[in-house]
Design a protein that fits this description.
The structure is a homotetramer of 259-residue chains. In chain A, 64% of the residues are buried. Chain A has a 5-stranded parallel beta sheet with strand order 5-4-3-10-9. In chain A, strands 6-7-8 form a 3-stranded parallel beta sheet. Chain A has a two-stranded antiparallel sheet with strand order 1-2. Chain A contains 11 helices and 10 strands. Chain A has one domain: TIM Barrel (Alpha-Beta Barrel), CATH 3.20.20. Helices cover 41% and strands 15% of the residues of chain A. With 259 residues, the first copy, chain A, is an alpha/beta fold. Chains in contact: A-B, A-D, B-C, C-D. Chains C and D meet through helix 2, helix 4, helix 8, helix 9 and helix 10 of C and helix 2, helix 4, helix 8, helix 9 and helix 10 of D.
């Protein structure tokens, strides 16, 4: 009834999962099921591994759409090549575009990112770029034809939540395509908060796969995202500097009347 | 399986609702049902009103336990008298104890509060006191025999969320009885956050009854509290100052191997 | 020209220093001089020690007024006794009143504090109580006749700054006597912020005495407090959600005119 | 003794002023003098105006170095042209480079900015670019040869302070040239905080020129920046989660010894 729509495709879940950090395929499967996700990123090199069955098989078996990413790419050219290989290997023209500036910060390279996005869109890809929280860069990514904008809340794996909510709100306000909060989620309230800021979905991996109880955290994230979406649509009360009695007269005086 | 237990009574829901601010009994009923609450506060003077059916009837009809409060009381004596009248009127020895310092801040009077709590406990009441976020006052309330501690996140009706999370954590760490975050919740992520800090339940009214769509917000709060509880129990990832790749090797290099 | 006035006494400096944590008397003296303080707390037991000269002598020699405290007292009675001993030993009826709830949190005991304050005021003391950040407790302390209110920003020695600025603002708004931010200051911007919130002075010890370079940090605190006071009086610009060009037309167009 | 050095030039003051928002030249002059600034930005079109004497004259008369900016430029080409005109008009190869993405957000255009910076550096300019708070973009600006990095704390004119301190710290950690916090300063504690994060200087305009008392706020900023610099160098105490007595034994017990 309230689907997430990206590039014309509808998803019942607004939680996009990543697969990194999972200690085992079995644990990953349990967590993915608990999360209710319908779209999950996979790194190209993990698509085909023979050992214990592949992530690719796992996703297909659970009816989850695979979203190849370009994790580990440091330049536009590298990301473009990886995307093309993934398109053939995974038989999808969707790609989560990552162009990382360095191995330490894992922050996106803004200039290489826009360049890669432009090329991939021109080549027929549905491009979902992982970006920083700069509203101007987000606009440029939309302008070159990306199908969603995926800003970070904080650096990958930090679990620091959303460090600059105003930037996320500004990205949401200006984006003609869905906004997916990607990176930085640490716990359920972070995910709910992202949705309350107006994000259309949340992408997370580590906060679930590295939690002490991944399946329970996956369930928490699923509910938190639904809660945040509902809260966003329900129209929250304004923040007030002064107290306001929930009912100015309730319980006061007139005790005789009450009995 | 994970009930909230207060004074030996079990509740399946960890959302305690207030009734203030509701525009109509019908709207209130819809919101209460959506919230899943099993325990709801009522001000004494609102218990018996004939006009459109009473809140009392509404709660009974929906199987929700009524928790009388002493809203609007400014002294220990006034609160004690109100609690006793409520005990007779509502046939329960449970009371949400409020002793407010003034009409403007609606903040608790710490000294009158402890005094009233002591007297009511000695008189056989199950006392659930609304208090500020001072860990020392919380301890005193537990010491005099209160059955839960209900600290504010921020002043009543402000919707500012939890202004001092460290104080709430300190209250939780020291409390031998359940801690219920009471007052200040503005939206779903605030409620989830309270649970993540270790609170056992959340009490809220205005954020639901005065939302644009109270039933939807009630549903959001219900899910957020479940999500926050799960996240608390699931063991979140630590906050890190530096980025951490969800999988250091995924997608990197070896593109030939991947195909 | 803009003195701090407490109980009719004027001070040119708005920085009140504590002496705890200083590694040596010499280091303490250097820091106190750099701070420009005119009022410094001393614990009673440190007043008279013969070994390397006393803090008492140090303060007198530098023209700094000594403010005895009741550090380490856990009850009203203990604090009252300590205050009386200090009055005789130090020949002053001023006292920084501390009644601590426990050794771990070092948080004030709100009920014992008000009780001790009332007794000491009635006995002719000028009482400066160290309190939590509850605006209601602050009001009670003013009501019993305290000459200043000294709320914490965060627990003693944590250096976490001001965790709940709204509470400090509320205390300032309601206080008929000077408000001194006491405890929690970690660095210079914390002290400036306290003054910007409307505090009349700042009391700090650890942040200077345990800094790597105490004298330099003392100088920083001195300037920060003057800066914060000036900023408070200068009337800051409002916070805006939207950007505002400092001059909408500057530099734009008309390049021909410019040359 | 601790000068700010940019491109080999030393400045005794770490406060760089802007001139926008000043209601009059006289008021501006008073504020500039109170600020102690030695470097002040001017928009090209304001350099030569005949009416009431020019800003150019004002700066020269007060011994303040003028730093032309490219305010109001929306593309690399426009900024480059403006910089060249300013070089001739102002007889300086220094330029504060601004390339704004739009009139509403006043945020920098990251791609045009790097492009303009590269060209201007190659043309012999000393380029001081106004940038967002992205550490990767900051690195690129340093890589193309900029002589300082000037990240925003929050959007121009908002007075919201530093919204993402971690980004500023990351920029400082990686920058081989001075970092100047530019935009978003609202009050003195914001400026002190910037310096504590490791910035080498602060650039501000509106917070002084639009304060109720600009000269007093200018003085506050001057002191706050000196305080923040000192605090940064003095080595602050660590933030602690638990309280720590400034002196565990002071004033406790041994009251007999004390007398």
């Amino acid at each position: 009834e309230d689907p997430l729509v990206i590039a014309g495709e509808s998803f019942g879940s607004r939680l996009i999962m990543g697969t990194g950090g999972a200690p085992s395929l079995l644990g990953l499967e349990t967590a993915l099921r608990a999360s209710g996700t319908e779209l999950t990123t996979v790194a190209l090199r993990r698509v085909h591994t023979g050992s214990e069955g592949s992530i690719w098989d796992l996703l297909r078996h659970n009816g989850i759409r695979a979203l190849p990413n370009t994790a580990g790419c440091f330049s536009a050219n590298e990301a473009i090549l990886t995307a093309k290989l993934a398109r053939e290997a995974c038989e999808t023209n969707w790609v989560k575009l990552e162009v990382i500036a360095d191995d330490t910060s894992l922050l996106p390279d803004p200039i290489e990112l826009v360049s890669a996005a432009r090329t991939l869109v021109d080549d027929g890809f549905v491009v979902l770029p992982y970006t920083n929280d700069d509203p101007i860069l987000a606009r440029k990514l939309a302008d070159v034809g990306c199908s969603a904008i995926m800003p970070l809340g904080s650096p990958i794996g930090t679990g620091l939540g959303i460090l600059n909510p105003r930037n996320i709100e500004a990205i949401v306000a200006g984006a003609p395509v869905p906004v997916v909060l990607d990176a930085g989620i640490g716990t359920a309230s972070d995910a709910a908060f992202a949705m309350e800021l107006g994000c259309d979905a949340v992408l997370l991996a580590t906060s679930v796969t590295r939690a002490a109880d991944p399946a329970r955290m996956a369930r928490a994230m699923r509910q938190a995202i639904e809660a945040g979406r509902d809260a966003h649509l329900a129209g929250r009360i304004p923040r007030r500097e002064q107290a306001l009695a929930s009912s100015p007269t309730e319980g006061r005086a007139n005790l005789d009347l009450a009995l």
